[in-house]
Specification:
Bound molecules: copper (II) ion
Oligomer: single chain
Order of helices and strands: HEHEEEEEEEE
Helix content: 10-25%
Shape: globular
């Protein structure tokens, strides 16, 4: 009996560990407003987005990239410029609102248009709240453009990537 119980508890632990590792719910964060591409996909506003519809918070890659999908192959659709990404109308400044499903200690938040960094916010390693907002001035840019927002984690080598399509 004891041997059976030991086997059973080992099996339960193994199954539990597998579920934990496989779970995409171990989550991180995304920009909900103005809607990022991953959020647009999760809302079903653009078709054929792939896995991202289930986990808009999971676009995690090494720091220093400049891509919408953070180098994650299964999220490559986020960098597909031929998709009909809806652009949000904005004025001379815009407030980016993040939903954080895991509140990782943060070094910086960066905002890029092309290769130009238009804003950076330094959290100095602090743990953010469950929601974070940044007001960013867009300068004199007009027309349609894409902002790449990057959440740099303080205690890992990784960052989270979001592209937001805007129209002014
Ligand atoms: Cu995370």
């Amino acid at each position: 009996m004891r041997r059976v119980m030991t086997f059973l508890s080992t099996a339960v632990i193994a199954i539990g560990a597998t579920l934990f590792i496989a779970s995409p719910a171990q989550a991180h964060g995304y920009i909900n407003s103005p809607a990022s591409r991953q959020y647009v996909c999760a809302q079903g506003r653009v078709a054929n987005c792939g896995d991202i519809i289930y986990e808009p918070q999971s676009v995690e890659g090494p720091k220093g990239l400049r891509s919408c999908h953070g180098g994650v192959g299964r999220f490559a659709q986020l960098s597909d410029e031929s998709k009909p990404w809806p652009a949000t109308r904005v004025g001379s400044s815009v407030t980016f609102n993040w939903t954080l499903t895991a509140r990782h200690a943060t070094s910086t938040w960066e905002y890029y248009i092309g290769s130009t960094r238009i804003a950076v916010f330094n959290d100095g390693g602090r743990q953010p709240g469950a929601t974070v907002s940044h007001n960013v001035n867009l300068g004199s840019r007009t027309g349609r453009f894409k902002v790449l927002a990057i959440w740099n984690i303080a205690d890992t080598a990784n960052a989270f990537y979001n592209c937001v399509d805007l129209q002014r």
